[in-house]
Design brief:
heterotrimer; A mainly alpha; B alpha/beta; C mainly alpha; B: alpha/beta; Rossmann fold; six-stranded mixed sheet; four-stranded antiparallel sheet; 7 helices; 10 strands; C: mainly alpha
């Protein structure tokens, strides 16, 4: 399964980043617009995935889960990469924006990753005969979920907001560096046993639906992350008594 | 030498979570002077002392110690500052000598064991040098902490409630320590609730309330 | 008076930790017996089929080491938190990176010692013969201990300041160590049973990469964990 990034996702990212930086007037409309796009695309998605796309030569209709399973895992990886970026950014320059975004992206990543792994297991039963056969990619994804659940647990168990931000940033970097290492090690470990099966045909209609799914789930992820980010930022403001960055020069009169 | 500023606190604030432990504190202490720091528990005395020791850093403002920035030049400052704190910094399973020797080695001293034992004898702990610190009473730990500070021989000494848990002999020892540090020309900051005692031993005074300076003399 | 550099500081911290372990060796003994007990439990839980046991011996050995590591890593920082001794060292002054190297090395030696004690027990309980020789096996034990210690030291430092530290440390550490665990078990199994297809090399390279990456990360990031900024 190729990891081709459809042009539309690239376009979406450019629009997103571009408006945030360059066009402040429509800035606040971008996010609701993406939410609408996400809902709209996902509303018609079942038709494309279940009806419009042709059945696969070997797997028949069972393969259709690909249209939810693959986009979710791909998007989960992207959002966890965002977490890694925020972790690095925070360590270089402290900011509640990067900290809140790190928290949001980790949570959405764990959620989408869990769904993807669950769907992978559901797909496994009819195709492999078992729910789990230690397929390297699925196994790495499962490990990833445990790692980032640990990240979220750490965040929950550190009370001081400043220490929480720093330590979870350290952990975010360790966790992300671990991803390729884990994938390689599981692949070697498993290469002595099974081989995976995946759809071999690349019917253009299927590719088209896959692209549609990727954009739809990317938009969904963006919506989730945006709202979770706002929530995290609000929590931070409450915790550190922002936006007052400094106490007043004179104490308030009693 | 006097005229130089030992501790220059410039509009320093420190935040822990939602609470400002220190709020816009500005003060300058010249070299060789001794300062009494007073205030209720939670007024920011410990926070301020830890910041001067570079154990923590300002959320806002700048703290200069002996002309160097506390955040950027922390290693250089740490060589010259000694902190006597609530926490003893001791390893429970090592003896008093072994604890001091770790510091001595990190300082690069020659014959750290000899110097450690000499200092422990001075604070009246010679007989106990083989026992782990775990077996020490609170007063004895304070004496080990005094010996530790003497070993460091700091240019700036920060004492956080040094008289707590001491018996009269211990208090006398502490006062001797303070006198000795002053005689050597060290700059001293003494945070204590025993105000009368503190006034006797110091020249200037700073009173904190809710992280702000309320009175400076 | 000349202050020790990075290496000198590392040695002072290491020496201090080893001295404390020696003076509290009753605790170390208890830890060793815990590890042996764990190994025994695997033996009982997984039945007396000798063929199976021989095949999986390396797995059980490394799991026992892993479970014991949580206890030894946790202890390594509990002693530093008791009287804020870590602050005392830091303010001596001592470079935080040297503190990391010293503590991580100390943890490595402790794990190596533990695994060396477990080795004869493993040979006896699981009826294995080390085809490639004992020195090769000890080499794997050493690299494995290095692999566990680097992320272990970082996470132990973080967890010792957080709530539920006893449960947080294994939760954070174990998933990160999976690649190292896989590689250690595979490499150990090959050393035990022989390596006809020459796979040992790739596993060793993976382990080495893991060690280099995580010791580097620890070296760079540990100051952020123990300093206030």
């Amino acid at each position: 399964m190729q990891l081709d990034i459809p042009l539309s996702i690239l376009l979406l990212i450019i629009v997103l980043v571009g408006t945030q930086i360059f066009v402040p007037s429509i800035r606040k409309w971008v996010w609701p617009a993406i939410a609408v796009i996400a809902v709209g695309m996902l509303a018609v998605h079942p038709y494309f995935a279940l009806v419009w796309a042709p059945p696969e030569r070997e797997m028949g209709d069972v393969y259709r889960i690909i249209y939810v399973h693959v986009p979710q895992i791909q998007v989960a990886l992207v959002v966890l990469a965002i977490n890694a970026g925020c972790s690095l950014a925070y360590l270089m320059k402290k900011s509640w924006v990067t900290d809140a975004l790190a928290e949001a992206s980790a949570e959405v990543g764990v959620y989408m990753g869990s769904v993807a792994v669950l769907l992978g297991a559901i797909w496994g039963k009819p195709t492999w005969g078992v729910y789990w056969d230690w397929d390297p990619r699925l196994t790495t994804a499962a490990i990833l979920i445990v790692v980032y659940t640990g990240y979220l647990t750490l965040r929950r168990f550190v009370e001081d907001p400043d220490k929480r931000a720093t330590w979870s940033a350290v952990m975010g970097i360790i966790a992300f560096v671990n991803v390729p290492i884990t994938y390689m090690s599981v692949k070697w470990w498993n290469s002595l046993h099974q081989k995976q099966s995946s759809p071999k045909t690349v019917d253009p209609q299927m590719v088209w639906v896959l692209h549609w799914s990727q954009v739809a789930f990317f938009a969904l992820m963006t919506t989730f992350v945006w709202h979770r980010y706002l929530l995290a930022k609000a929590q931070r403001e409450k915790e550190v008594a922002l936006p007052e960055a400094l106490p007043p020069a004179r104490p308030e009169a009693a | 030498m006097s005229g130089e500023v030992a501790i220059d606190i410039r509009d320093v604030s420190k935040r822990y979570g939602p609470r400002w432990a220190l709020a816009r504190v500005t003060y300058a202490l010249p070299v060789g002077r001794s300062l009494l720091l007073t205030g209720h528990n939670g007024s920011g005395k410990t926070t301020l002392l830890r910041m001067i020791a570079t154990a923590s850093f300002p959320t806002a403002g700048k703290l200069m110690v002996l002309g160097q920035d506390s955040r950027d030049d922390r290693q250089a400052i740490r060589q010259k500052v000694g902190l006597l704190s609530h926490a003893s910094f001791l390893y429970e399973d090592l003896t008093a000598t072994q604890n001091l020797v770790v510091l001595g080695r990190l300082m690069g001293l020659q014959d750290p064991e000899g110097k450690a034992n000499a200092l422990l004898e001075r604070v009246g702990l010679k007989a106990r040098t083989d026992n782990p610190v775990r077996q020490f009473s609170a007063g004895m730990r304070k004496r080990v902490a005094i010996a530790r500070l003497l070993l460091k021989a700091p240019t700036i000494a920060l004492l956080d409630e040094p008289f707590g848990e001491l018996d009269p002999a211990g208090i006398e020892q502490m006062e001797q320590l303070i006198a000795e540090l002053k005689a050597k020309g060290s700059t001293l900051v003494l945070a204590t609730h025993q105000i009368d005692q503190g006034i006797r031993l110091t020249e200037a005074r700073l009173h904190l309330e809710n992280g702000r300076i309320v009175e400076a003399a | 008076m000349s202050r020790p550099g990075l290496f000198g500081t590392l040695l002072i911290v290491l020496r201090k930790d080893l001295l404390i372990e020696w003076r509290t060796r009753a605790r170390l003994n208890a830890l060793i017996f815990f590890a042996l007990a764990t190994l025994l439990m695997f033996n009982f839980a997984l039945g007396p089929d000798t063929v199976l046991m021989r095949a999986h011996a390396a797995g059980y050995l490394w799991l026992s080491i892993l479970f014991s590591s949580v206890l030894s890593l946790g202890e390594s920082f509990r002693i530093e938190m008791e009287n804020l001794s870590l602050d005392g060292i830091k303010l001596a002054p001592a470079d935080a990176r040297a503190i990391f190297l010293g503590k991580a090395l100390g943890n490595t030696l402790m794990l190596l010692l533990l695994s060396l004690v477990l080795l004869p027990a493993t040979i006896a309980l699981f009826d294995v013969h080390i085809v490639m020789g004992v020195p090769a096996f000890i080499g794997i034990l050493l690299i494995g201990s290095l692999a566990i210690s680097a992320p272990g030291t970082i996470y132990a430092a973080i967890a010792s300041n957080a709530r539920a530290r006893d449960v947080l440390l294994p939760l954070l550490l174990f998933p990160i160590l999976i690649p190292a665990l896989l590689a250690c078990v595979k490499a150990s199994t090959l050393v035990l049973q022989g390596d006809p297809m020459n796979q040992l090399d790739s596993w060793l390279r993976l382990l080495l990469a893991f060690v280099v990456i995580y010791w580097s990360i620890g070296f760079v990031l540990f100051p952020r964990v123990i300093e206030d900024d």
